[in-house]
Amino acid sequence: MKQGALSTRRLRAGATGVLVLVWAAMLATWGVSAEAATKPTHRPGPLLVIAVPDLLWSDVAAMPRLRALAAGAAVGELSVKSLSRATTCSNGLLAVSAGRRVTDNIPNCILDTITVNTLRERNRSGRFAAHIGAFGQTLRDAGLTTATVGLSASLLLGDESGVVDVMAPDVPTALTEADVVAVVLPSLYSADADERAAVARTVDARLAAMVAAVPPDGLVAVVGTSDGRVGGAHLHVAVLAGRPWGHGQLTSIHKLPYLQLTDLARSFLAALKVPPLPDLDGQATVTVPGPAPSPASMADDDLHARLGTRLGGSIRLMLWFTGAGIALMAIGARRWRQLAWPVRVLGWPMAFAPVMTYVVQLVPWWRWGTGPYLLLVAAASIVSGAVAALVTRRLSIDGRVVLVPATVTFLILIVDQLFHARLQFSAPLGDSPLIAGRFRGMGNTDFALMATSGLLVAAVVAAASLRRRRRREALAVVAVIGLLAVLVDGLPMLGDDFGGMLALLPVFALLAASVAGVALTPRRLLLGAAAVLVAVALLALVDYLRPADQQTHIGRFVGQLLHGSGGRVIWRKIAASFRSLRNVPAVVVVVASLGAIWWSRDRLFSDRPGRPLAPGTGACLALLAFLGSALNDSGITVAAAVGLAAVPLLIAGLTAIPAAPAHPSERAGS
Predict the structure, then answer these.
(1) What's the rounded Cα separation, in Å, for the pair 180 and 136?
(2) Does position 549 have pLDDT exceeding 70, yes or no?
C-alpha cells in the first residue's frame, strides 16, 4: 500500500511538473509572439517625394541626371486631370493629398491657411467628396513622421488639419528626421518656352543633389504634379525609384505606361506597407518589368494625346452637322426628288467617316498636324464609300447599302477591342488620357458606333431571312451578333463597359422579340428587365471577387456599393448626364436624327414585305440612344453618336429604294 501510494504521489508530481513546464513554455511562447506582434514590420524608407509641376517628358532631354535615375527605375505617363480643364499647381498637390479629384482653380503653388480650409470644406461636400489631407493623416495614424521643405509641400503632405511634423530647411536634414519627405520645385510651372531648357537643367541639378542625400534603401518619387500656368493639359513625368517599384513600366489602370495623379497616394502607401483609408480613391501602381519606353517616345504620346483631344470637339461638330444636313436634305427629297442624288452621294462617305477617324490611327498623323489628319480622314472615307458602292452592286440582298458600311464599322471596332483598343486610345472620337475618363476598354462614343452598326447589320440580315420565311435563322443571326457585341463591350478584360452592357442587352432582346413576332406585354418587359439585371449583376460580382489589383471599374463599383459610397458615384454620373443637355449641337443632331428615322420608318423598317430592315429596328435605335445616354455619364453625346452612325446609313439606303405603292389597306381606306 505504501509502495503503491508512493508510486501514485510520484506520478502526480511528475504530471504536475510536466504541466508546469508546458505552462511556462506557453507563457514564453506567448511573450515572444506578443513581442513579435507589437514590433512593427520593417518598412522601406525614407520616402522622398519631389513634386515638379509641369515636368514633361520632352523636358527630360535637357535633364541627364533625371534620365539616369529613370533608366533604373519604374516610369510612366502621369495624367494629372482634376476637375478643371488644366490642373493648376495647388490643384495637383491637393489632389495627391486627397487621393481624389479636387476643385481648385487657383494658379499659385502656395496657399494661405484660410484658403486651404475653405477648399477643404468645399471639396468635402463636393462632387467627389475629396478629403484634403487624407494621405498625410494616413501616414500620421500609421506612426510615420512627415517633413516638408518649403511651404508649398505642406499642401501635399499635411494631415487633415494641414499640419506636418517637421518643417526642415533642406532635404538632407529632413531625411534624417522623418519617414516621408516632400519638396516642390516650381520653376518649370511658369517657365517661358524659350527658356524652358535652361530651367530644366537647373531643376535637374537640384534633383541630383536631393536624390544623392537619400539612403541606399530609401525611395524616390519624381512626379510632374500639374500642368503649366499656360499651355493647356499635358501628360507628365512619373519616375518611382526604389526596391518596391523595381524597374519597368508603371500602370495603375491596366494600360501601360499610364497612371493617374489620384493613384499616387495609394502607391506611396503601398510602397511603405501602410494600409490606405477608404477616403483615398485610385489604385496602387504596379510595375511591369522590362524595358521602358524612351523619354522621346513618351513625349510623342503626349503630343498624340494633346492633338487628339484638341481635334475631338471639332471632328464631332463637323460630323454632327454634316449628318444633320444630310438628314434634312433627305426629308426634303420626298418633295424635291432632285435632292435624292446628292444625298446618296454624300451618304456613302459619311457612312464611313466615323470609323475612318479610328483607322487613320495606324499612321502617326499627330506628327504632321491637323490639316493632314483631316485630309487623311476625308480621303479614306471617299475611297471606302466608292469601293462600297461598287461592292453593293454585286450583292443581291435588300438593304445592301446599309449592310456594307455597317459591317465594316462593326468589325473594325470589334477587332480593335480584341487588340486592346489601340485605334481608340487618343483618337479624336476615342478616349483621351488627358480627360482621364477611361484608359482601357470601350469608350462611350466607340460603344455607340459599334452598337449602332451591329444593330443595323443584324436588322438587315434578319430581314433577309424573314423574307425567305426562315424565322429561326433570323433569330440566330440576332442572337449571335447581339452576344458578340455584349461580350466584347461588357467583359472586364475587353470592353469593360458596364453602362453599355446594360443598354445592349435589352436592345437586342427587343430586336429578337420583334423578329420572333412576340407581343411585348408588361409582364414580359418586367421579366426581361429582371433577367438583364441578374446577368449584369453576376458579371459584376465575378469581377469584384477577383484580387483588388486585377479588378476593373465594374468590380470596384460593386465594392463601392457594398461599402456605402456607390450612391455618390451614381448621382455623379446622373448629374453629368443632365449637364450634357447643355450641348446644343448634340441636341440638334439627336432631334434631326429622330426626325429622319421617324420619317423613313414605313419605307425602311416595318412589317410590310420588301423592307430592307427587320420590324422594330426603329424602336431599337431609339431605345439604344435613350439607354446609352441615360446609363453613361457622356449623356446625350451617346445619342448623338447613335444618330451619327445610323442616319447616313439609313438615308443612303432610303434613297436607293424606289417609292413603294401604297399598302392595299391604305388604298381601300382612300
Answers:
(1) 9
(2) no
The owner of cell 524612351 is 294
The separation between CA 317 and the C-alpha centre of its own chain, rounded to angstroms, equals 23
Residue labelled with grid coordinates 423598317: 605
Task: Kindly state the average pLDDT of the residues 488-499.
Answer: 81
Outline where 230-364 has alpha helix (H). Answer: 264-271, 295-333, 340-359
Please enumerate in sequence order all residues whose Cβ is within 8 A of that of 267, keeping only pairs 6 or more positions apart, or say none: 240, 252, 259, 284, 285
CB-count exposure of residue 662 (10 Å: 0-12, 13-18, 19+): exposed
Count, in order, helices (H) and strands (E) of the chain.
24, 10
Largest Cα span, the chain: 131
Confidence label for 396 from pLDDT (cuts 50, 70 and 90)? low
Contact 80, 308 (CB under 8 A): no
Contact between 451 and 628 (Cβ < 8 Å): yes
Do 410 and 471 contact (CB within 8 A), yes or no? no
Q: Cβ distance 141 to 280 under 8 Å? A: no
What pLDDT was estimated at residue 627?
A: 86
CA-closest candidate to residue 353, choices 656, 623, 654, 641: 641
**In 3-state terms, what secondary structure has residue 433?**
coil
Question: What is the Rg, in whole angstroms, of the alpha carbon atoms belonging to the chain?
Answer: 31
